[in-house]
Design a protein that fits this description.
The complex is a heterodimer of chains A (about 200) and B (about 45). With about 200 residues, chain A is an alpha/beta fold. Helix content of chain A is about 35%, strand content about 20%. Chain B has about 45 residues and is of the alpha+beta class. Chain B has one helix and two strands. Classes of the chains: A alpha/beta (about 200), B alpha+beta (about 45). The interface between A and B is large, with 42 and 33 residues.
């Protein structure tokens, strides 16, 4: 483990997998954050786009803000979603880039990948693809993406610098990173930062 | 950190009360945790 990191990345990854396995299987049950359609409304997503999606495509959404607010996607753009979960933001992106665009979602959790692939098939979104992978080692070639999006995932990675370096690698020159994540206004005690159980609490 | 790894034109949008009304609200309030949209560009 890199001594500069607050927690062991592999151990944190297992903690995150455990938490989000629950969100995939039981999206409405007892989480400390909002999920699904109420959350999408709270975060200011386009209501018409969300209403048109089947429940399975929305129910496990667990983002923290709206990555499309500061810059909409353009038709034909190639988009990578770093930590795509059950695919909600990929489906929003697919509607924005249209049939000429491409959207690739990357996630480490088999349960989320299975759910996102089923929803993409149900919605007949041929321009969307999901791949298994880690944010620290994205399975995408250099310079492929016009845009990288992400929502509430980078804060769950121990080595954020490595993640941003990897995102920069897969973006084309001039490409955009538009992501949503949480930030705290008050310092969290160092002891709490080192407590892996608190990262997903 | 974004600028440190080579991104430019970094923008941060308005905060969103992500955890309001959820069971995690108390902990979020304790550390003033909000969700934000971020935008940055790779030079080129």
């Amino acid at each position: 483990m890199n001594a500069e990191l607050p927690v062991d990345p592999a151990m944190l990854r297992e903690e995150v997998k455990s938490k989000y396995r629950e969100v995939a299987a039981n999206p409405h049950g007892g989480h400390h954050f909002h999920t699904g359609r109420p959350l999408a409304k709270r975060l200011g997503y386009d209501t018409a786009l969300v209403d048109a999606m089947p429940d399975a495509a929305v129910e496990s959404f667990a983002g923290v803000a709206n990555p499309f607010l500061l810059h909409p996607l353009k038709p034909g753009e190639k988009v990578l979603d770093a930590g795509s979960g059950a695919g909600f933001d990929c489906f929003i992106a697919a509607r924005q880039v249209g049939a000429a665009g491409r959207v690739v979602g990357i996630d480490m959790l088999a349960e989320m990948l299975e759910k996102s692939r089923a929803s993409a098939a149900l919605m007949e979104l041929a321009q969307v693809q999901f791949r298994e992978g880690l944010l620290e080692d994205l399975p995408v070639e250099d310079g492929w993406a016009d845009v990288v999006i992400s929502n509430g995932v980078i804060n769950l990675c121990a080595d954020k610098k490595r993640v941003f370096q990897e995102i920069r690698r897969v973006l084309r020159p001039g490409g955009r990173l538009q992501f949503a994540d949480i930030a705290n206004g008050k310092d969290v005690p160092a002891s709490a930062v080192r407590n892996i159980d608190l990262w997903t609490a | 950190m974004l600028e440190e790894v080579g991104f430019v034109d970094v923008q941060i949008g308005a905060p969103c009360d992500t955890f309001g009304g959820a069971s995690g609200e108390k902990q979020a309030r304790r550390f003033e945790v909000y969700g934000y949209p971020f935008l940055a560009r790779k030079p080129g």
